[in-house]
Design brief:
The chain is mainly beta. The protein contains one helix and nine strands; from the N terminus they run βαββββββββ. The protein is globular, with a radius of gyration of 14 Å.
Length: 110
């Protein structure tokens, strides 16, 4: 039986959350959730939020990423990162559970 591991958050992603919070009036956490929909069946929702009682909290130096219990199985062993490219900057999720994904990077299937 293979051990399921929670998602990993890169130092780049934590640094970007910290930068966002430094520019804002109040510190928030980054919520990563999986919802039905999108062009491939599931899509990621990434937003600033406050923690809920049953969230998994991934934390580094006081900066937090939240994952709800329903989304957690879809994000097993995933990597949450921040990417800066010429076409733009965004949080990205490298998900080994996704069997295919859309070119937009926010939609996937399992």
């Amino acid at each position: 039986m293979q051990l399921s591991l929670p998602p990993k958050v890169t130092d780049r992603a934590f640094a970007q959350i910290d930068a966002i919070n430094s520019a804002a009036s109040e510190a928030k956490c980054l919520r990563v959730a999986v919802e039905g929909g999108g062009c491939s069946g599931f899509q990621y929702e990434i937003k600033l939020d406050d923690p809920a009682d049953d969230d998994l909290i991934l934390e580094k130096d006081g900066t937090k990423v939240l994952i709800d219990q329903i989304s957690l199985p879809f994000l097993t062993d995933a990597v949450i990162d921040y990417s800066q490219e010429l076409i733009g900057a965004r949080f990205v999720i490298e998900n080994p559970n996704a069997t295919s994904s859309c070119g937009c990077g926010t939609s996937f299937s399992m």
